[in-house]
Design a protein that fits this description.
7-stranded mixed beta sheet; Rossmann fold; globular; alpha/beta
Length: 249
């Protein structure tokens, strides 16, 4: 594991192989989404559940005025960035991803969004640049989560929000041992919220939505994909699936 995480290249190559595989693209209906979804309202498809999860993040925006400068950190193949752009039509939306291949895909299918190859822990933007930073199911991959929080705080304007989903894991066997830095293996929600406030943020919300996210996804794997072993292993490995909203004072 240490050798894989010693350079970003090992992570990028393996993640590209997974997310860009024909099997994975077919599973997600060639939608460009890649998350576990929000199953609260019993969506008919995995694609619909994935879009609902992005919308669930955006529903946490608590600003008096709509944000005009938005970052999607760890944007994957860019489909979620498109949801953000449609929700906030007057905003300039930037999507960043550490993978050149994934950013290339995003640029091809999501016109009008500013996609850039960039590490979310070392963002190359001016300080106090964004009104809103969104990150859907990516922070546990960042090397490290703490560095991401510290960087996000600097890049947000006063009053700006960071809204993100994240997983606490008791093991990484099912999400990929290569994909989660050891420093991110926090198992206690109180320790997690202390990490957030330690970066300087005001904690607006940190709720466990495991029942509506990972459990719904695992039920989909069992009933629609007949992937029972994967579903059981993944569900048992996730302690909590957190939806967190933070504010920069």
């Amino acid at each position: 594991m240490e050798n894989e995480l010693a350079t970003a290249g090992g992570f990028i190559e393996r993640y590209d192989h997974m997310i860009l595989s024909e099997t994975m693209k077919a599973m997600y209906g060639n939608s460009g989404f890649y998350n576990v979804g929000d199953w609260t309202n019993n969506p008919a498809t995995l694609e619909a559940a994935c879009e609902a999860l992005v919308i669930k993040h955006l529903d946490q925006v608590a600003m008096q005025q709509d944000p005009i400068s938005i970052l999607d950190a760890g944007c994957g193949l860019g489909t979620g960035s498109g949801v953000i752009a449609r929700r906030f039509g007057n905003a300039h939306v930037v999507g960043i991803n550490i993978s050149e291949k994934q950013i290339s895909f995003a640029q091809e299918v999501n016109a009008g969004i500013d996609f850039r190859v960039m590490d979310a822990t070392r963002m190359e933007f001016p300080d106090e640049h964004f009104d809103l930073i969104v990150s859907v199911e990516a922070a546990f991959h960042f090397d490290t989560r703490k560095d991401f929080l510290d960087c996000a705080y600097r890049k947000l304007r006063p009053g700006g929000q960071l809204i993100f989903s994240d997983m606490l894991l008791n093991n990484t066997d099912w999400v990929g041992n290569w994909s989660v830095p050891t420093a991110n293996l926090i198992t206690d929600i109180n320790d997690y919220t202390k990490l957030c406030t330690g970066a300087g943020f005001q904690l607006l919300q940190c709720i466990d939505i495991k029942h509506f996210s990972i459990k719904g996804f695992c039920n989909y794997l069992r009933t629609s994909m007949q992937l029972t072993d994967l579903a059981d292993g993944l569900e048992n490995s996730v302690i909590a699936y957190l939806l967190t909203s933070l504010k920069k004072q």
